[in-house]
Design brief:
By secondary structure, this protein is mainly α. The chain has one domain (5-169). The radius of gyration is 16 Å and the shape is globular. The protein contains 7 helices and 3 strands; from the N terminus they run αβββαααααα. It has a 3-stranded mixed beta sheet. The two termini are 23 Å apart.
Length: 170
């Protein structure tokens, strides 16, 4: 059993509840549940996450200091912008494109995966969620630092409780 996961979820939720999020849980990916206003987050940083950070840097001219916070706020951005596209042809288009991209990813080469990820990042619902997060980060730099310090403290406690140390991350 994973020790301290509930405490970690609570700490992250405490930082996101002001945005109207109803629940935060650890998962294998970042996602926003439109039906229940939940955010899922992950504890790994993958090649796809790096591509997303590179995309944000290039598209929005923002150097990401805290990728975990950027990814969380991107999901909050979905929450904050969902009503603008819900029930529109944009939502249908994005859903169809996400399905196409996911299916094609299964057999794609690395170069094609990068192209597909960039197509995904540029979908209208993804762009508005990312833009919301970028704008928030730019407007609230001190809040972002405080948010990261609190979440980082909870993450370090979680890792310590589970016997993970820096040597394990190499």
């Amino acid at each position: 059993m994973i020790k301290g996961l509930n405490d970690l979820n609570k700490a992250i939720f405490a930082e996101l509840k002001e945005f109207g999020i109803s629940k935060v849980t650890c998962s294998t990916s970042y996602s926003y549940g439109t039906d229940n206003e939940d955010i899922e987050y992950k504890l790994t940083f993958t090649e796809e996450d790096k591509w997303f950070m590179d995309f944000v840097k290039t598209r929005f001219n923002l150097e990401i200091k805290y990728p975990f916070i950027m990814s969380l706020l991107h999901e909050v951005g979905h929450h904050k912008t969902f009503e603008d596209i819900e029930g529109t042809c944009i939502e249908e288009f994005c859903d169809n494109e996400k399905e196409r991209i996911t299916n094609e990813m299964e057999t794609a080469t690395l170069e094609r995966k990068i192209e597909l990820e960039n197509q995904y990042f540029n979908l209208p619902d993804e762009i508005v969620a990312t833009k919301w997060a970028v704008d928030y980060i730019k407007r609230h730099p001190l809040r972002i630092i405080r948010m990261w310090k609190k979440i980082q403290k909870a993450l370090l406690k979680f890792y310590t409780e589970n016997g993970v140390n820096e040597d394990d991350t190499d």
